[in-house]
Specification:
With 521 residues, the chain is an alpha/beta fold. 33% of the residues lie in helices and 26% in strands. The relative contact order is 0.11.
Length: 521
């Protein structure tokens, strides 16, 4: 058998149950990965993909089953065991230390030493620079982690496991927040790594990318493997059907809605922060009307987060000037509670840290902003709360009990908890950021449907997203932000994602007149 077809990894009859909530994450899973292949693992949220890979990387322990590596049975009880076997994982949420620079993060725990005693920072920077050049993963070794874009942070994570000698790379949702051009460059790197003898496992929800980059694909559903096939023999629709167990539309249908009065208007909105040479937001002007979805696209680190914070009363970084007019009232310095009273709903990008209180129960999170209406004689009305929460669980298909801590839910279900709370308020303005980051096809389809319903109900919707697929699918108008400035505004008519990507990377820019006319339409 040719070397490239030899089996590198076998996981047989893997079982994993979480006793706390009796969730059977893996049920007799069998996975076979060949040497020097790019192997995709796909499935809905909660299908068991990440749990399986955490077992492989020593971050979880299987209840039963066997792992064979290079044909030999192995025991992986810790990340150190996986490291010893040259297995490394890049998680969906990066595990980097913001207080350290790039080189410090890459060589952490394996630092080069001067005189066998002191950490040699100069040598570390040289080694990291050389490693980046070798694998087309160049990033300034002396740059602070906080200053990097999402794409650059991902390179650091991959450099970290390459520096440790990993030959099997496990990548969890690696393209979730990358632009089209960054994804193309990333795939070039993956193909190069494969050609150099590396084996790569990708966990992803993006089926177009599965078809583009992988050699084989394993499909999981409800904790089990339902199929493993050669990618060249697969179709997007076929993989989706296997993931879900039924046909999936894979499209967004938007009814015709005539936009109404202006709900939100920004006039020369600027955010300046001490120590930065340029404003983080620079004279942003736009208007959003009733029954309209206005998409804001951009690469992470170019102002999307700052815009989200300023508009929702969460800004703590610097000084705001200009105006944010909500129904004609300047709310540029308003508290989040004031904005809620005026009719704003907010679905943040960070669902766990900002969108929910992770340790509280599902029911507590659902009533978080409505609890004052459920007080009887100075006490919370338990029966009324239970009925309220049951209705939300049913209407939003939340897979979890009312007493389950939110931290124990899957990403898709956490997002449904946030949506059930925010959408049920019938808002006049909805600010929603990265709504489907890390969500599967069914969960994404559900979120899109709810956003379209908001639009049909005459809400004004500001969609902030680095995912061009959803920006193009949902928006009526699209603005691109680069280095804190709007560089282009388009009516959403046959928009080309690759062209949008060029604006997101600062390669193209409209005239000031075109931008203003498009943004204030």
């Amino acid at each position: 058998m040719p070397t490239e077809h030899a089996v590198l990894l076998e996981m047989e009859n893997i079982h994993k149950t979480y006793e706390g909530n009796n969730v059977h994450a893996n049920k007799g899973v069998n996975l076979s990965v060949r040497r020097e292949e790019i192997h995709a693992i796909v499935g809905e949220n909660g299908a068991g993909k990440t749990t399986l890979m955490k077992i492989l990387c020593g971050l979880e322990h299987a209840d039963e089953g066997e792992i064979r590596f290079n044909g030999e049975p192995v025991t992986i009880h810790s990340a150190h065991d996986a490291d010893r076997l040259e297995i490394g994982m890049v998680h969906q949420h990066f595990c980097l230390f913001d207080g350290f620079n790039v080189a410090d993060n890459v060589v952490l725990a394996r630092e080069p030493r001067k005189n066998a005693l002191f950490y040699d920072r100069v040598d570390a920077a040289k080694e990291v620079a050389a490693l980046g050049a070798k694998y087309n993963l160049s990033v300034d070794p002396k740059a602070s982690i906080a200053s990097l874009s999402v794409g650059e942070k991902q390179r650091v994570e991959i450099l970290r496991i390459l520096y440790r000698g990993s030959k099997l790379l496990v990548l969890d949702e690696p393209t979730a927040l990358l632009t089209e051009q960054e994804i193309k460059d990333f795939f070039v790197t993956l193909r190069q790594l494969k050609s150099l003898g590396y084996t790569i496992i990708i966990i992803t929800h993006k089926l177009d990318e599965v078809l583009d980059i992988s050699d084989r694909v394993t499909v999981m559903r409800n904790g089990e493997v339902v199929d493993c096939c050669v990618t060249a023999d697969c179709t997007k629709q076929g993989i989706a059907r296997l993931m879900v167990g039924k046909e999936v539309l894979l499209r967004v249908d938007k009814p015709l809605v005539e936009p109404g009065e202006t709900v939100l208007s920004l006039k020369e909105l600027t955010l300046t922060v001490p120590g930065f040479s340029h404003p983080l937001l620079n004279e942003i002007s736009l208007s959003i009307r009733e029954g309209e979805i206005f998409g804001m696209a951009g690469v992470a680190g170019n102002g999307l987060d700052d815009l989200e914070n300023v508009l929702t009363g969460m800004n703590s970084r610097g000084t705001v000037s200009g105006e944010v007019l909500f129904h004609g009232v300047n709310v540029s310095h308003a508290h989040p509670s004031e904005l809620r009273k005026m009719g704003m709903a907010y679905v943040p990008a960070d669902r766990l840290q900002r969108g929910t209180s992770a340790e509280l129960r599902l029911s507590d999170n659902v009533i978080l902003v409505e609890h004052h209406a459920m007080v009887r004689a100075g006490l919370l009305h338990a029966r009324g709360i239970l009925e309220f929460v049951k209705e939300r669980i049913l209407n939003y298909d939340i897979r979890g009990r009312h007493s389950t801590p939110v931290a124990q839910l899957s990403g898709g279900n956490i997002q449904r908890v946030v949506l059930s709370r925010e959408f049920s308020r019938d808002p006049e303005l909805l600010v929603i950021s990265e709504p489907t980051w890390g969500l599967d096809i069914v969960s994404s389809e559900f979120v899109y449907q709810k956003i379209i319903e908001m639009r049909s109900n005459r809400s004004a919707v500001l969609l902030i997203s680095a995912n061009l697929d959803e920006v193009v699918a949902l928006s009526d108008r699209v603005a691109v932000i680069y280095r804190g400035e709007i560089v282009a505004v388009f009516e959403n008519k046959n928009l080309d994602r690759e062209s949008l990507g060029e604006y997101m990377l600062g390669l193209e820019r409209q005239s000031a007149e075109e931008i203003l006319n498009g943004a204030m339409a």
